[in-house]
Amino acid sequence: MAEFHPKTFAFLCNWCTYTGADLAGTSRMLYPADFRVIKVPCTGRIDMEFIIKAFEQGADGVWVSGCHIGDCHYNTGNYYAQRRWTIFRQELAFLGIDLRRLKFTWISAAEGRKFADEAAEFVNRITQLGPYNEFQSILPENREVESILGGVS
Amino acid sequence: MVISEADTTKIVNSLRVRAKELLESGEVKVIIGYGEGYTKGKAVPVFITDPGKTDQLIFDARCVNNLSMYLKHAEIKAMGKVGIVAKGCDARAINVLILESQFKREDIFILGVVCEGVGDPIEEQCKSCVANTPPVYDELFGEPIENQGWNDETFAKIEELESMTQSELWNFWVKEFDRCIKCYACREACPMCTCTRCITDKNQPQWVPTSPHSDGNYHWNLTRAFHLVGRCVGCNSCERACPMDIPLSLVNWKLIKAVHDEYEFIAGMDAETAPPLATYTEGEETDFIK
């Protein structure tokens, strides 16, 4: 059987973590490539819809990363993001989402090493957890829907 | 503390008299209040523009609806200054709406009524009300009483759910949300859902799946609750409106609890304090973001 490669998304802020990822790359650091990077202007730009949509698109894990507190390019974006995620995580936990599949980090443009390490940690964690069957079971393609046509084809 | 029947009659009478005065003087153009329902044991919202008809107004335990949800409607705004009969939860909702610039304080005249809880039997959220006496009003009907306030029972159900494992919770909610028929009655009944175009009605891109089967039910219910963070006053209008009896109040109250635990904030107690998700404290950090 082929090795399991998770489908994961990484929402990275343009100014810090994305640049940090660049640094990791130009420094020739090795890290697993099993995540799709989505560049956003700021962590404050990440609507909670993005995360739910990612899971609805079949994601096994989602990683959100941006500037350290106080380093935001727009001064305050990550403060708002931080508050939003604080409450959002609690809601997700309450509604039965597996929080191990959601990772949050602050990685600056200078922290290429940290980026590579966190990327490895994230991908390894999700690989070990395996596919997110629980969430995917509610998606229409995996659901046994009774035909509304009642057998007429 | 119990408000006697005689007091209730007095409250209703003075409410009617004052409403008549307000309409006659032209200070307000319409009075939104409660009237006798068409079915026994039910009250309905009434919109009175004729000073001769203020005798329609009633107030008792049947008046469960949160009338402040009408204030956001363009048709109501177009009528001019509005007089509204408001219980504590309605008044709290009005505070939130003023804070969010949905209308100005001077655009409405609040006929506050002291309320000991509504519903028969008394509704769950009323047992630990933080606003038995409305926090905002132009004129108060009834003697101010002490607010019951939250107690150990308030979040008992939430804590019971919290003690479940992740998979148990998942199965519980998927089963509950599975019944959702996407009628959006929860949204329509909610005083806080003020968007003229709800995210579920936006289709470029289509965030929330809207097809007529269970696809998107989880997404919609999660989104609806999250959009109320730090705003929900816990009036349970959504749950009351839900034709499928989904326990929406559990999610709302979980978030009310989370917001209070994290930021010591209770929505709608005044119209000045910035809502927690629209502000921050310099230097604050959390432990889950490494």
> How would you describe the shape of chain B?
globular
Q: Kindly, what is the distance between the CA atoms of the first and last residues of chain A, rounded to a whole number of angstroms?
A: 36 Å
Give the CATH architecture of chain A: 3-Layer(aba) Sandwich
Main sheet of chain B?
6 strands, mixed
Helix content of chain A: 25-40%
Q: Helix count of chain A, per DSSP? A: 5
Q: Note the beta-strand portion of chain B.
A: 5-15%
The CATH C-level name of chain A is Alpha Beta
Q: How would you describe this protein?
A:
The complex is a heterodimer of chains A (153) and B (290). Chain A is of the alpha/beta class. Chain A has a single domain, classed as Rossmann fold, CATH 3.40.50. Chain A is built from 5 helices and 4 strands, in the order βαβαβαβαα. Chain A has helices at residues 17-26, 48-56, 77-94, 112-129, 133-136, and strands spanning 8-13, 36-40, 61-66, 102-106. In chain A, strands 2-1-3-4 form a 4-stranded parallel sheet, with helices on both faces. In chain A, helix 3 links the parallel strand 3 (61-66) and strand 4 (102-106). Chain B has helices spanning 5-25, 74-77, 88-99, 156-162, 166-178, 185-189, 217-226, 237-241, 248-263, and strands at 30-36, 43-48, 57-58, 82-86, 108-113, 139-141. In chain B, strand 1 (30-36) and strand 2 (43-48) form a beta hairpin. The longest helix of chain B has 21 residues, at 5-25. Helices cover 32% and strands 10% of the residues of chain B. Chain B is built from 9 helices and 6 strands; from the N terminus they run H-E-E-E-H-E-H-E-E-H-H-H-H-H-H. Chain B has 2 domains: 5-141, no CATH class; 156-278, no CATH class. Chain B has 290 residues and is of the alpha/beta class. In chain B, strands 1, 2, 3, 4, 5 and 6 form a 6-stranded mixed sheet that branches. Chain A binds chain B through residues 48-49, 52-53, 56, 69-70, 76, 79-80, 82-99, 104-106, 118, 134, 138-140, 143, 145, and chain B through 158, 161-162, 166-174, 199, 207-209, 211, 213-215, 218-219, 222-223, 225-226, 229-230, 251, 254-255, 258-259, 262-263, 276-278, 280, 283-286, 288-290.
